[in-house]
What we know:
elongated, mainly beta, 9% helix, seven-stranded antiparallel sheet, 38% strand, 8 helices
Amino acid sequence: MKKIFTILVTLSILSSTSAQSPCVDSSLIDPTAMCFMIYDPVCGCNGITYDNDCLAEVVGGVTSWTPGPCGSSSVPGCMDPTAINYDPLATIDDGSCIYNPPSSSICEDFDSFQSGDPIAQTSSNWETWGSITNPNPPYADDANVSNVLANSGSNSLYFEAVGAGGPQDVVLPFGAAAPYDIGIFEFSSMFYVNSGTGAYFNFQAETLPGQVWSLDCKMDLGVLVLENTGSGLNYLSTSYPQAQWFEIKLICDLTNNNWELFIDGVSQGSFTNTVNKIASLDLYPITGHQFYVDDVCWSYTAPVLENLNAQVISVSPITGLNTQSRNPSVDVRNLGVSNITSFDVDFDYNGVTVTENITGVNLSTVDVYQVSFTSPITLVSGTNIGTATVYNVNGLGPDDDPSDDDMSIQINAITPAPGKLVVGEEATGTWCGWCPRGAVALNWMDHDYEGFWQGIAVHNGDPMTDSDYDNGMASLISGYPSGIVDRGPDIDPGDFKQDFLQRIVVQPKAIIENGAELNGNVLTVNLTAGFTNTVSGNFKLVCVLVEDSVTGFGSNYNQSNSYSGGSSLVDVDGTDWSNMPSSIPASQMIYRHVARGVSPSFNGVPLMSTTFNSGDFETACFEFNLEPSWDQSKIHIVGMLLDNTNRVDNASSTTINEAVNNGLSSECITATNIGMELNGPDRVNIYPNPASDNIYISNLTESSKMMIFDMTGKLVFEAKVADKEYVNISELSKGIYQINFVGSTFDETRKLIVE
Length: 755
């Protein structure tokens, strides 16, 4: 009778409140109903506590309730014991449950197919790059099963590049649970690479290919390289056997970000991947590749998590120059069941520790927090170790798994050659959709290597084009975007950093000083090369004007953007070009590093001497007419000394004001005082001037008739000359002469001083 009495008492209490409570449905009240007398309290929507949910309904008639007694604080969390983030203290399931992907293992030997079968069209496991977004066979990028060679059974998959690469481009998705970023992922496959050729595959990090590459494997002429091409990182290199079957295996401990490569069962090394995620395999033949693939296998094993565990998942690579400052960036992941609300991170380098205290966060299981250190480290020359350590998680000291609390990286800092400035020239245009990659690369190089690097954006086919510069660049590049560092080989602008680090340590043969004089819009410049050791060769000087913060109006200033809605491209200011429209309006664009002029030409003017001793100086003078629309405060004067091979030996860069403060060389002042016209980008150039024996003629648009007159108007010399040609004037007496160049489309007069 005691239990029944409790029900009746509760009913009598409700009778006075139910009429006022809209959450109570009196038709649900049934005093004769039987409920198990289990104490599992709930709080009815009417604010009354019931011993369990059954009593809440049949006794209270309430239509809804929450776990726990009324007046107690609700604890949201995952209440499913099978989830990896199950919270036994939770009283309200907040839908945050996370479940491990099921362990799986798949192998493909191609023996269930017929020779000639297109693998993506005939298999439910395979796709092509194109079929994922356009699933209508046949697929132009499919690969066929072959019975010519096989590691096991009779069949394999064959790839042979046509032209620049492809057309085969097949994708093996790694299951419905992909992408994976914790647990153990294993991949293995047999490869047969024809002698003298190569093979290629990559791992994609996202379910939809083309978003993020997690790893590239390049095999060429017996050399295998694992790298992340997009970030320019080379993880490891090794050799592989040609013209025979061999196994490539990758064991990826995603939980601890440790990727290990095996060839025929022998470890070739391990590395930390900057993109520690994997979703699919992509097989694609690059130019000249011929290879077979057989016995493709992959497996995934889910992790077992501790209760409280903060993990250092990655440390961003750090490179730079001796004495530069760098701010470490560390990713910390909650690899435990309990939420993380605070932690500390140390970064130790060269005996110095910087610390970040992180509070006010609430990281659920597998959430990642990027710690950007506000205190920098100072780089020291050589290779040294930097170690990130997470500790004091939730203020409780050590967590439940100390083994993943720290991660170390090698930090390489190099010492630049004294007085060295490296030049990077980028071929670009507003019409070029992929050219934002070059603009972003130049910005990051400025950010990371200011004072050691000068970027120049050479525009093509838009209002910022300088024809002389554009035509000169065209002879050195293969397409757009392209880049050259110190006039070296044509590269992708994303590789500026790699080439820069190689060039910055090369001792220059001379140091260049800029001087200038500005009269209205006429800028007179001297470049003075001071040689630091004894050298010989045909050296040349080039002067370039570069303007930052260029804006314009009209559609020709709109920037085409192929990154729109696709791959991420993050600029220094945090702007992601993938979030920008495919055609960015001129009103939103600011162009930097814009080449405004090159003098006397792209290939420069030869120096008077071919042999120099340490301490020798030689000066060249240049003149520019500045357009009124140019912002003189944003213009840099860039000097380049070219060597015998036309590579940039060294460079200089100053603002106009800095060069004016240095003063104009007396050689240039003398030349202007006696009425000598200086070389410039818009006229036929003569060098040297004054001269005594040979002059160098450049900037001619066509072969021309050259006539030299003395001060009385008498013709004293006549010759046919072409662009970039030397002319011997040693027979002329000292004095001032007038040179007349006559072509089919122009007639130009210059002054010459013979000493």
